[in-house]
Amino acid sequence: MIQAILVFNNHGKPRLVRFYQRFPEEIQQQIIRETFHLVLKRDDNICNFLEGGRLRTRRLSGHGSRAQPLCRMWDLPGLGQEPMSPASAGGLSTTAPPGKTPIHPLLGDLHHYCFFRQYSSVSLIGGSDYKLIYRHYATLYFVFCVDSSESELGILDLIQVFVETLDKCFENVCELDLIFHMDKVHYILQEVVMGGMVLETNMNEIVAQIEAQNRLEKSEGGLSAAPARAVSAVKNINLPEMPRNINIGDLNIKVPNLSQFV
Amino acid sequence: MALKMVKGSIDRMFDKNLQDLVRGIRNHKEDEAKYISQCIDEIKQELKQDNIAVKANAVCKLTYLQMLGYDISWAAFNIIEVMSASKFTFKRIGYLAASQCFHEGTDVIMLTTNQIRKDLSSPSQYDTGVALTGLSCFVTPDLARDLANDIMTLMSHTKPYIRKKAVLIMYKVFLKYPESLRPAFPRLKEKLEDPDPGVQSAAVNVICELARRNPKNYLSLAPLFFKLMTSSTNNWVLIKIIKLFGALTPLEPRLGKKLIEPLTNLIHSTSAMSLLYECVNTVIAVLISLSSGMPNHSASIQLCVQKLRILIEDSDQNLKYLGLLAMSKILRTHPKSVQAHKDLVLQCLDDKDESIRLRALDLLYGMVSKKNLMEIVKKLMTHVDKAEGTTYRDELLTKIIDICSQSNYQHITNFEWYISILVELTRLEGTRHGHLIAAQMLDVAIRVKAIRRFAVSQMSALLDSAHLVASSTQRSGICEVLYAAAWICGEFSEHLQEPQQTLEAMLRPKVTTLPGHIQAVYVQNVVKLYAAILQQKEQAADAQAAQEVTQLLVERLPQFVQSADLEAQERASCILQLVKHVQKLQARDVPVAEEVSALFAGELNPVAPKAQKKVPVPEGLDLDAWINEPLSDSESEDEKPKAIFHDEEPRHAKQRPPEADEQELARRREARKQEQANNPFYIKSSPSPQKRYQDAPGVDHIPVVQIDLSVPLKVPGMPMSDQYVKLEEERRHRQRLEKDKRKRKKRERERRGARRHTSLHTESDEDITPAQRVDIVTEEMPENALPSDEDDKDPNDPYRALDIDLDKPLADSEKLPVQKHRDTETSKSPERQDVTVVEKKSKKPKKKEKKQKEKEREKKKKKEAEKGVDLDFWLSTTPPAATPAPLPPGFLQEEPGVNAAVTAPKEEPRGEEQDAGEDAEQDLEKPSEQKKKKHKKDKGERSKDKKRPKKRAPPREGDAEPVQNGALREEPLPPMSSYSLLAENSYIKMTYDVQGSLQKDSQVTVSMVLENQSSSFLKNMELNVLDSLNARLARPEGSSVHDGVPVPFQLPPGISNEAQFVFTIQSIVTAQKLKGTLSFIAKNDEGSTHEKLDFKLHFTCTSYLVTTPCYSDAFAKLLESGDLSMSSVKVDGISMSFQNLLAKICFHHHFSVVERVDSCASMYSRSIQGHHVCLLVKKGEKSVSVDGKCSDSTLLSNVLEEMKETLAKC
User: Could you tell me the pTM of the whole model?
Assistant: First the structure.
């Protein structure tokens, strides 16, 4: 199962957020932030997997030693080690000054150990089973959080399929396409992954279905039907050359109102 | 109104759309939050408007804001409004928003049920698709229950696009509504062989997901998956299947054997790295499951290791990483083959990618041996030194400890070295694993007796330099090691060379800055030290020195009395008083050392955690039984204590044994000592001279370690582990020389001159003897401790609910809830009953060679046996294709099982399947020639089944023994269907089945499957019947006899669905026919037409019979009663086996077998009005005779006539 699909840019701004497990919005944002910080640290030439921490029970048999559960989030540096202050979300990774207990913005003044535990009870990342698999394309990170039933290399291929599909549907996709057409990106994703399970891996099939749905939408007039299209046409026209007044029926509209939308 | 519309669309012009919103947010970087809250206000306004386009636009923007972290659940109702829009454009927006923000806590979610149901049955595949996609994200248990049946219908949709989505979503439905798993499973299984690869992949996906959680329930699917694996070319599907096999093999090692070959073929042939990797992984899983006694798999291991090496050497970091990951799995079972690649792993330790370094570390864990441990740890220590980032360094630290301590320090040959490593590790800055190091120090010092002297010297040095440890790294917990150091110095103070100095170190004022629990240990061990020093001084008769020590304590202890930590404070004040008392005694020149050291006499032995829990309850001890019988209730409460008291005393007196003589006492003492010696909880005395507290025999078995004096006990100065590497080498060299010398002597004696490569030191691990021995006292665990790991199971696992046995036939109660026809509801007619799948397992007495096996199997649980037959067979033979002809009859068992299961689900359209008839089935049964052959025999008949009585007869031993009271399980049954054709035209095909129920004596339910055979959309279907005096259609209240009953669904092209109608019957002794009409509107592109189809509904007498189990004694009584009239028929020319014959009668005529002896069987059934019908069926050469007895003669003769017809077809 895929637990979540996140797309964000080099600054951690979310471009597509698809959780297949319910999290309150603030936790979602937190997960996005933390995931971002995890992948940001990684060079492009190191591997694309991040394994979830294991709730390890290490028992040192012997006198007086009890089972010592070591709760760790990730095998890798990052989470908890460095406080994720809102300021650092802008893309700079800050290192915690030595001697200072990491403080998490949401969970307050908790030692990161407690943070792990509290977090792991709610988090998709908390389970031992989960790992992050990501790919970095130009300005965007595509991150899939999956459990052990998914093949790592398979998911990497799937990300590739998804991105190539986006590329076909948007014709040379760039970050701006994702920004302005988040809904369309979702519709494309829905043809690839459904409810956390892979629906289709054949790109031609995916594109065919997307196009069929787009045609259907067009035949219905689309969301931005005639009037809205007129507006966008108006918006794109050089304003100073426009007549100051337009008469539509008996309603008189002052054009300057439009300028705010430009 | 028109104006309002225009105005609405004009307003709409100026609404922001999603793009405007995004642009706006980008333009307001500095006051984004303010801008967004403004936008949300606008959106709220837009949502209030009637125009659905405006609403949809608003919801679309909300979805975007949700991504930015804004809660949009307040708009849930508006989202539902947009979901129910008729246009796909809007609907899709609504469902997207819902999928992003709906969850089980959304209260309006229940309002969506009908909307979703409508969308699911929408004629547009994209409406359906979007509803399925949305639902997959927010399905709740309620939605799952209500919609399960609709979704199941969609699994057989004509469009693969819908089918694959419906199949996938079933997993979510199962999770939320586990009861649906069994009814839906047969169809899901069927989808594994769907012609569309997408649907097939979806089904594989779902089953893999299910099987991953509860693999044992899916073992029986292994043959099917095996076939898929060898035939599929879709890598995605292959990966899933191969992963699934990886999960299944641990449960069934034979499966693994079967898999090895095709998997190795794939490994050789595939070019896809992902597939190669998964194959290797599964081969590893197989090898692990086979780990013992498979000689010829070394080739497979070699292949795997070799392929993995290629991965690891690849420049792609991902492959490198995965290669190491897989390698570590092999390591567990085949360490030797991995150890050959040590160079590669060590090389990876230097990789720039940290995750790869960590994987390599994992591998190292398994690669160490006595020979290379020091070398590897040395390398790791250099990594520790240059590691940047505390996490990685901590990881290294724990790995070093893991590696060294694994399997009870198996690889450590020199503990002095290890202690020095630990001490070196304490100098790590900022590690948070101080407690780990501490635990190791304690453990080693306790277990390795020979090392205590050395450990104590090191620990006292550590205590001496405590300021280094404590000051620099107090925050990180490295000071935990002081805890261990203090305890070791105190407990083993006899080994201390300068106890006085250590004592002073422990009493420094700086100590009070340590954490409380460490102070407490300090205080406690100060006294131990004190006791040791006192003893020493008194022995030396140095009273002066003794008093000085006491004085020191009296001066320094108060600093602990002021400690903020309760424990430290309490101990300190207690001990302070004690010392003051000692001081007084000393002043009077009383020797006190003896008494003070008595405080700490005795040795602590290790006891495993959970030891107590694992003590088995002794045989014969019933913990729930009353020790004393509870007092009777009649006694008043006040009396109780008195009574007990009163009772007890005289008994006590009575039982006092007579004075035992001396001999007896001695014997008992001996017995007690023996018992204590074997009792893990009895703290044993040790034979060490210092602790001469007890000197009991029976503890000699604790191994006392001999110190190998070839190693100097102390390395001068602070320990440097490196020195030990050298020393160890020397030691080993010496050892080797000695050994060689011995060998050489021996050899020379044997054969002079025949010099072999003695100079080549093929030193194996076993040759290296450790310098010290570790005490692993077996009694850490109580005897017969139960190796239970029950505590590991998580009771809250959501997947537990899906741990459902799928091979068990479906029971009556198991079906998906259907949206019921209201007639059925008003009349509360029971649902049809024939839900159970007949088991068709058989074994023929011919199979003599298998008999033995089967007997064993019979002993097992029934269910296992059933599952086993298929799988055993599949696993025990070469692939079916290879041996087509001489198959044992047992093979056939598999097929009907599949078959019956496939047709088992009830409340869904059957027409389609029926129509598809043979084709579909042959598709389904491609696996082998035999199946096809078999199938042809029973062409065209589809199976339903009959109810099986709850109580089953014990397994049969042979044919001669009677079968009692059960459905027949002997032989494969041909597929059968109780549905018969009612009417058919170019638009629609109707099939029906009539069912009675014992609860309603005058009603029968007619289940009618309607299948749309045209390309039109059928709606407004209405069924009307011309009532007769005897039989009437139950209509909704208030409608006249001439009104029709509407069919509660519409039929898109190619879809079938089932409706149920209730009829009231007066007399059931004769069969009858009712004329009726189905009217409907067929709508297609050209327009809609009103159509109708006439039919004749045939109520046979059989349809009034209800399968009822009967016991043979009751049956006998019934026959003896003499109230029954008798009749009989005989049919000639029957070639069918008796087994199948009975099954047919059971199935089509609703009888159950009471008893069967050879080719003669008694059967029973009951009519809905309570008539008993008893049959005696006898099979001759070519004929069958049926004698019947019934409380109504007309009914009997009619039933027999009908039966004759059925039999004549055989």
Answer: 0.56
